[in-house]
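FW: tagging you since you asked about this chain on Friday. Here's the raw sequence from the shared folder, copied in full. Didn't touch anything.
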Amino acid sequence: MSTSTDQRYEYVLQGTVVDRVTRKPVQGVKVEAWDRDTRYHDMLGVATTDQGGRFVIGFQTVYFGDYAPDRSPDVFFKAFIDEREVLTTYETPQYNLERGTTTVVLELSMPKIKTDGVDRISGAQALKAIDWWAKSDFRGVWEQGKDKSKSVSRLVGEMGVKSLTSLNIKPIQPTATKDSQIVNQSSLQAEKSLAAQGIQVTEVKAVDAKATKNLANLKDYPLTLRAGDKVTLYEENGVVKYYTLTPKTKAAGIDAEKVAGLDEEVQAVKAQLREVETIRAEVDRIKESSQTTGQALGDGAKGIQAQAEEIAKLQGELATLRKNTAAKDAEIAKLRTDLDAVRTAQTNLTTNIPLSRLEALEKEIVRLRVAPQPIVRDAPTPPVDRDANVIRAPETPIGKRTAAKKAASARSPSKPAAANMPASKSASPKNAAAKKAPAKKVATKKVATKKAGAKQADPKPRSGGKRGDDA
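HL: got it, structure written out here
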């Protein structure tokens, strides 16, 4: 990552690399910071120490926590000199590192070399020689060399001094696989022996007839085979003659700044992917909520439609009720007008007629209800003599009397008509009774007329006045 102390980093590691013995800073040490996880470890940053042995590494939260629910990183360091790991704090990490700036000190165990006189060998060369001497097992190589001498004696003569100069001198160790188990064995048996030691056979080739080609292949003839190595077998007539170590693919030069930039981009993409997952979950939740809301709206629409129909029905009933109410209001207004007219007439009647007159009228009404008098329509009422209090019979003019007689004779049957009737019919009892009936009716009518005249001649005194007074 970056060696800058820019405030945009949540975590900043400021460290110093020193010699464990001399406590002096070590320059040119590559320091890597890692987050220790349960499954995969995340690289947090890379830096190289300066002249004072100092380094700075900054990183963000998104750089860690992919496979474990980390809230704070567990940081450990790796130190490299000339691409060789010289220190690791994997077993003693800094658990739950807090945000902000953290200061660390890394101690390296550097070998101390004593020199006398002029130093003609560089320190790096001396370190390599000492390391080669310390790690070499000459006794084991001697024992293994005895076994190999039988198979390589013929090839050594052809190889000569030139081939020896091309050998890569490295610290040697005895291998667990004996050369006799591979050389002069069938290819199948050699593969089984190598597989038992964890060594993989990548290819089986035939021995080239050209000596120069064989010498070029023998320059990689291994003195040491370790578990995980890969070899190529060379056979002749199905028998392995020798083998070479398959060269490992060398990694290209790594630019720390480019790696830091790429790592930042990767972490940014991871953060975006997390946001996308969150948004996707939110979208799914919104879809479910929309479906639920749609169903609720459908049910609500049905209810609203039913309510609208009911409201329309009630509006129709309300309109009818208003019409009926308007008719009733008009009828009530008419009744109020009539009542006001009746009250006005009653008030006028009470005002215009005196109280004594009203009392007299009430008594007369009571009297008439108790004893109603018959009214004779045929006979005219005789005039009343106010002075003598005597009712006189009306004097009918002679002309009128004659007209009345003629009318009576017209209503009664004529005598000649009766004389012309047969004797049997005129003499019958029924005809005789019919003749007597008109005479009886005339007599009764006369008696009623006389009684009415007598009553009118002697009227009873009315309340509030004397006999004979005009009401």
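FW: Residues 1-6, 414-430, 461-471 have pLDDT under 50 and may be disordered.
HL: agreed, and The chain is about 50% helix and 15% strand.
FW: great, closing this out.
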